[in-house]
């Protein structure tokens, strides 16, 4: 595949949305779709769609449109969804438990291997088939198992400490739910889900719309 | 306050981050900070910071920097955090329960008034002090109570239906956790938290970094 480098973060952030819409089309047995039809569904312009997909290779055919299943397969591969990822969750509080219980991720090839917590009351319990282990075992677990992604769900005060342990143990990808900006080595990827910032954006927009009414 | 209009979404998305850092500074009794010092902490350039804050008014003083408490108060007000918001959660599954249990939002002036679910086993239970009610009562609850923000945590198949009910009952702001793009009237604000898209972005970046290694 002619995959081009230096793809902007803006494009990268749109790709999962293509995946979501194409998956729905495939589930509804749609065989092919033009960039105009896709545009109507997804809300990006047709030219935006053609440009985005061009970043990743030569999809689509003039006058025919996109073959849905083929494009879906290629976008899955671009997103790395054709592989399996071993994940661990650190922090079995509200968010950690919700993520652990969310079977959608499991179906999407993210395989939860262990959950870690500091709370003795939680250690030994199981969420689905996965046991909650003592956070003291975190380092040795990472060293003895192949872990691709660590999901940080600890309170903000503990997040950087946990981050230091896991990155020095070899973790290269972090999905971070703690409301802090983690300091990581250059070769470690962090994707943040900052819920409180999202909620503040909403309250900002709500107020702004009232002011301009 | 000289608040300017047409502020870009990129700026708006950065404001909660300023709030988070300024709050930490205030909690650590820091009285004032220069844009250069703030830049080191927050990771935006000093000129970016000055430019961002200028969108909202005339903060800071040449040679003195920003008065932390004053700037924090003004940013709180810009974000609408000096007001109270009545919220409801629709969907008491994993994510809905996690949000309901997350007391941080309560402290941040988002007041959870009710939770709705379709599952008879959940109806009547309480999360913290808030009871889970029958989703059949959703419409009348919104009409009889002042609800500012609805938090949608139902499965994707039900999300648009719930959205239609709440917007036609008068809801103007939605925090949406369902993995769909909701269709709403023009005067309704939607802020999405698409967890699976975030996870896909991470797996994309992880693969990209392996490819370019």
How would you describe the overall organization of this protein?
Two copies of one chain form a homodimer. The first copy, chain A, has two domains: 9-78, Orthogonal Bundle (Arc Repressor Mutant, subunit A), CATH 1.10.10; 85-197, 3-Layer(aba) Sandwich (Rossmann fold). The model of chain A has no long low-confidence stretch (mean pLDDT 91). Chain A has a seven-stranded mixed beta sheet. Chain A has a two-stranded antiparallel sheet with strand order 1-2. Chain A contains nine helices and nine strands. Chain A has helices spanning 9-27, 35-42, 46-54, 68-78, 94-101, 103-107, 138-144, 156-168, 195-211; strands at residues 32-33, 66-67, 85-90, 110-117, 126-127, 130-134, 149-152, 173-176, 189-192. In chain A, a hairpin with a 2-residue loop joins β5 (126-127) and β6 (130-134). Chain A is of the alpha/beta class. The first copy, chain A, is globular, with a radius of gyration of 20 Å. At the A-B interface, α1, α5 and α9 of A face α1, α5 and α9 of B. Chains A, B: One of its GO terms (cellular component) is cytoplasm. Chains A, B: Residues 80-181 form the CoA-binding domain. Chains A, B: It is found in: Cytoplasm. Chains A, B: NAD(+) binds at residues 91-96. Chains A, B: Homodimer.
Give the strand line-up of the largest sheet of chain A: 5-6-4-3-7-8-9
DSSP strand count of chain A: 9
Coarse morphology of chain A? globular
Roughly what is the average pLDDT of chain A, rounded to an integer? Answer: 91
Instruction: Tell me the radius of gyration of chain A.
Output: 20 Å
List unreliable stretches of 5+ residues of chain A: none
DNA-binding region (chains A, B): 17-56
GO molecular function (chains A, B): DNA binding; DNA-binding transcription factor activity
GO biological process, one term (chains A, B): negative regulation of DNA-templated transcription
GO cellular component, one term (chains A, B): cytoplasm
